[in-house]
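Review this:
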Amino acid sequence: QGSRLRLVLGLGFLVTLAAAVVAFASILRQHPHGEWDAWMNWDLRARMLFRGGEGWRRAFAGTFPWSHPDYPPLVASLVARTWLYAGGETLAGPALVAGTFTFASVALLVSALAALRTTSQGLLAGLVLLATPFFLRHGTALYADVPLAFFFLATLVCLALDARDGGGTGRFAALAGLSAGLSIWTKNEGLLFTLAIAAGLLLTGWGADRRAALRRLGAFGAGLLPLLLMVAVFKVAFAQPNDLLSTLGVHRTLGRITSPDRYVLTLRQYLDHLTSFGANGFGSAVWVLTAYFLALGPTRDAAARRATATGALAVALLLAGHFVVFVSMADELARLLASSLDRLVLQVWPGMLLLYFLSVRALEEASAPPPAVEARG
């Protein structure tokens, strides 16, 4: 029965993957330059790096403040690297970077859950991710949100592997730190994510074994440090002031954080976006996943539950941090919520699917016959 289930899910996954690849390529053919943020930031900066020669530093000058020159350059530098390999600028460069991160996220999610739980859990998670239109469509936009989602997912996968390993060597925690550092090098939101992960590691491990929690946090920091130093050099030596931070002032900030309307609006938008995310024309995936969890129940895998606790706390802290940023820093709050909240949810969506399928019982466990009870007498 288990092999038949895996066969059905495997065929469904392959058909869905093929359809997703065709859809991805079709959208890119219609919109080969991506969307607005790709034009004004990622590909613009890649062209400035590629064409700049010895003057490449001008890519981060304040000449075009609307293009966010303070953003970390991982995506732009990868696009420029593809053009160096190709010998010239080609639309295939940004498409290759976008496609790699989009489908690598699917591959990582499926393979991680297959290793940590069961093959069926991995295939189901992959099906949900591939059936999320916003995920695929946003991959074709050539933005940095899908690459950022990949590094968020990779960090959570490494922490789950560390929980299964028992934290004995710290190698997976160090890899988690490296992946978190790459998220900071991808987009500014990576810094808040990294702080949330560090807090999650400390808070969930402190009550059980303080020494182990500190060792795990130390290994995480060791992996993080090289990328953190690189980001610090970039921010100090090259980047311009952040546009949100530049609007901070005591009176303006106090006026924002003491306005109840800002809290109500932000909370309402949070609830709306979180409960409707993953809609594919048949309703939100959130409610389907909720029903699935209620039907199967939580897993009894202790390592999976530890990893889920750390990751879930980190994601909750990350979303809470974004909430504070919206309330305290945004001038045009309604516009900013409408334009960016879906993308912020997208950044954690693959990681949330990982945590969800780590925490729920597998289909094999639910369909397995109960253990026989030995007769006494």
About this structure: Confidence is low (pLDDT under 50) at residues 373-377. The two ends are 34 Å apart (CA to CA). The chain has 16 helices and no strands.
